[in-house]
């Protein structure tokens, strides 16, 4: 078994993400590993006319900058909150792109030994409509992936 020295935690700022980060921090503490956090954002496929963005110079680039800046601010707040819970985070960054591909590519490029990802545990139609980033990361990652459900979800049962 290979040593776990670098752990990647992709987050979407949800309760499952928080649980995954906390779990990764516990593993890292026990193994002397580092934990890095990423958030993947992407442009919406469709932006309706009159969405509040108008004027000269406002277009796709401005929208990209706004979404990127919002993602960076949200990630900084998420990591600050984690650090207040004594979670040690090595680095935190945002990436643009399709979540599964960006996570798998970042894990490979960063030579991570483990990915710890939160899962909402959706089933049925919600899973079909929303997909499962965690499941796709498990299928495509070069390294082991640990999918974590928050305690409050697992204690209510599978469909709760």
Provide a descriptive summary of the structure in words.
The C terminus is likely disordered. β1, α1 and β2 form a beta-alpha-beta unit. The chain is an alpha/beta fold and 160 residues long. α3 runs parallel beside α5. It is built from six helices and five strands; from the N terminus they run βαβαβαβααβα. The protein starts with 5 loop residues before the first strand and ends with a helix. The longest helix is centred in the middle third of the chain and has 25 residues. A five-stranded parallel β-sheet has the order 3-2-1-4-5, sandwiched between helices. It has a single domain, classed as 3-Layer(aba) Sandwich (Rossmann fold), CATH 3.40.50. The radius of gyration is 17 Å and the shape is globular.
Mind sketching the topology for me?
Layout: E1 6-10, H1 15-31, E2 34-41, H2 60-84, E3 91-96, H3 99-109, E4 114-118, H4 124-130, H5 133-140, E5 145-148, H6 151-156
Parallel strand pairs: 1-2, 1-4, 2-3, 4-5
Helix pairs in contact: 3-5
């Amino acid at each position: 078994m290979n040593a776990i020295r670098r752990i990647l935690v992709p987050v979407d700022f949800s309760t499952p993400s928080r649980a995954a980060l906390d779990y990764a921090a516990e593993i890292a503490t026990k193994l002397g590993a580092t934990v890095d956090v990423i958030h993947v954002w992407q442009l919406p496929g469709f932006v309706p006319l009159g969405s509040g963005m108008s004027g000269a110079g406002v277009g796709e680039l401005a929208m990209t900058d706004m979404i990127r800046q919002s993602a960076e601010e949200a990630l900084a707040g998420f990591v600050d909150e984690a650090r207040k819970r004594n979670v040690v985070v090595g680095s935190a960054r945002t990436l643009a792109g399709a979540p599964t591909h960006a996570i798998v590519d970042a894990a490979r490029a960063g030579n991570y030994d483990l990915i710890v990802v939160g899962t909402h545990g959706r089933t049925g139609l919600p899973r079909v409509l929303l997909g499962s980033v965690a499941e796709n990361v498990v299928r495509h990652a070069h390294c082991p992936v640990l999918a974590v459900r928050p305690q409050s979800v697992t204690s209510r049962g599978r469909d709760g």
